[in-house]
Amino acid sequence: MVVDQNMSVLEGSIGAFQRRILVAEDEFAKARQLLAAAGFAKELRADGD
């Protein structure tokens, strides 16, 4: 589930708020793999949170 995607309306579209993706715990590893494969590896937190 993507959350905070409508924050740009509240913040004035300056991009100060990041979007978050909520993933079920049992899907966490697969979600990280998919995001890395999609080119978002640098965006992933190293601590896994």
- The secondary structure category is mainly alpha
Q: Give the beta-strand count.
A: 2
- Strands of the widest sheet, in order across it, are 1-2
Largest sheet: 2 strands, antiparallel
How does this model look, in words?
This protein has two helices and two strands. The protein is mainly alpha-helical. The chain has a domain at 24-49. The protein has a two-stranded antiparallel sheet with strand order 1-2. It is globular, with a radius of gyration of 12 Å. The model has no long low-confidence stretch (mean pLDDT 78).
Essential attributes:
single chain, 49 residues, mainly alpha, two-stranded antiparallel sheet, 8% strand
In short:
This protein is mostly helical. The chain has helices at residues 7-11, 28-40; strands at residues 2-3, 20-21.
Topology:
Layout: E1 2-3, H1 7-11, E2 20-21, H2 28-40
Antiparallel strand pairs: 1-2
